[in-house]
Design a protein that fits this description.
This protein is mainly beta. It has one domain: Glucose Permease (Domain IIA), CATH 2.70.70. It has a 7-stranded antiparallel β-sheet with strand order 2-3-11-7-6-5-9, with no helix packed on it. The radius of gyration is 14 Å and the shape is globular. The two termini are about 15 Å apart.
Length: about 140
Amino acid sequence: MHNPSAHVESSKKLQNIFCITAAHTRPHQAGGTRKHMGLDIVCTDGDTVLAPFHVKINGPASPYTTGVNAAINDGLNLSGQGLCFKLFYVKPVETSGTVEQGQELGTMLPMQEVYPGITSHVHVQMCNKSDPTKYF
């Protein structure tokens, strides 16, 4: 479901995290009692995910603590412009080093294989688990 209030604003630091085919962001509709700790960027499985600005890759990041959902249990821990954040559901090109704005970070993983019918998305989570919405 598209949320007009979640559109990217030009003054926000993370505005340029995007998949090549992504057009908007949306809040996640977490089921049950689980609190959603981030923001989802709508993508298509297999999309190229690009850096929002010059970032340092601080290593891999996994959305799941166990071996469940192995097909999509991947991501990156990134920092730059005073922010520390994680991108989940991305197969990284590299897990260390630096990447310039607009360069490829990785590829959107196959969410449809694990959760058929879900809106495929890259999940953005701040390292301190604060709300990332203000950066969009």
